[in-house]
Amino acid sequence: MKEFKGTWLMIKTGDDYFEPELIEFIETKIIHFGVRNQLDNGTLSKIETWSENLSDAKIERVNANRIRFFIKGYLYNAISETESITKDKIFEVDYERLEPTKTDLTGMEIEKLEFNVEWKHQKIRFVFNTDLDSPTIQKINKRLKREGGKLILEHLNGTYFGAIYENGRRQTLIPIREVCNDRIILYGFPEMPYEIKALN
Known about the structure:
- By secondary structure, the protein is mainly beta.
- It contains 2 helices and 14 strands; from the N terminus they run βββββββαββαβββββ.
- The protein folds into 2 domains: about 100 residues, PH-domain like; about 90 residues, no CATH class.
- Strand 8 and strand 9 form a beta hairpin.
């Protein structure tokens, strides 16, 4: 069980629309948790949602800090309004082990930093507490009385996250491996190399 020690974050692929999930291995069980704000200072707490027997899970080690679950499920294809096809499918779900963020900065100091992150040839502004949407989308959101996308700094047991919120709901947690005034390393991405380094 030593190889599964710690808390693991489910890795979202971009096609997932559920809130972040954590797991821990306790004796012969896998405990699944949701996350919620404990206080308004960005501290997260875990809420147990369900558990399963470790012996029932098919797990593969991807590397020392990443595991892959193979989960039986169904794929539904709609052919028309009245007809659909259902097929058995094995879904692959990755989890990354969380580690304490390496930093000498306080949370307030981290929140003031800005980084230009590149993922899959797309440049993304990594800046906290600012509307991330384009001015056009911001105008549409205002008319629809929706909150735009925001990046909020949150933390759990020594790990800092860039939490992406959409319309006031936490969608994704991006763990921060290391951060200083001129550099940040983010990890827990769905594809190799699984982490991004960005400069200020």
